[in-house]
Amino acid sequence: MTLRLTTLCDNLAGSLGYLAEWGLSILVEYGEETILLDTGGTDSVVRNAIQNGINLDQVTRIVLSHGHKDHTGGLRHVLQIMDSKKRQVILHPEAWASKYASRSEPVGSDMHYIGIPYVREELEHLGATFTMSRKPIWINDQIVVTGEVPMKTSFESVEKNLFVKIGEDYIPDPIPDDQALVVKTSKGLVVVLGCAHHGMINTLLYAQKITGEERIYAVVGGTHLFRAGPEQLKQTIAKLEEFNVAHIGVSHCTGMPASMALMQYFKNRFFFNHVGKIMEF
Predict the structure, then answer these.
(1) What is the CATH number of the domain that holds 148?
(2) Judging by DSSP bridges, how do beta strands 143-145 and 180-185 pair with one another?
């Protein structure tokens, strides 16, 4: 059975006619399931689906990797063009938190809202039915949403400029809602990342644990390495090599310096997962 991944939103566009924006969305087709992981920040997913000849009515369910608006802001646009039947939307309950980012020094100043830009009732009126869980959700025997990813490695951590507003106070956000989509294939796991705020390696380790499958065949999506220092990047590459990952397709929050380091090391195992990219495993 073929697994097909089509990138519908990313910071980079692969060819003329596609719209790029800071965000991510990947269409995952495997067997009878067509899953949209994240929805970008605006209407780029809808525009790029049309450009690619994709009918979003085929989507069986939507998975949100976390509650930041560059991954959830396109949800209303996606729901609006779908037919009237209900669509399951899987997310962590903390994705609804009032999320902010501090964009100036000192950290904790110049706060900007970066959470889901819609109220739940509006999205439900458009057909969304929300399934919220902190634990893994198995869509079928081969596809699982990880739920909360434990922090295990010594070299990965959550950024310190991210906060949750509770009342009038801003509290550091550990982003417990960070999760990924994992597909078990005959060659091993294909792990589709949203932003990997809890770390790409932490996510891969947890994917192994919840599936019972040690082989990791491919990693695709946002790796959140754009602020990684040399030591984190070095240890990340070492772990990916230890996993013997066959395909590494980076997107969105990876950043160009980290992307270049990964490309130089992994060579033909590496690819840019930009808008319009289609991969079949």
Answers:
(1) 3.60.15.10
(2) antiparallel
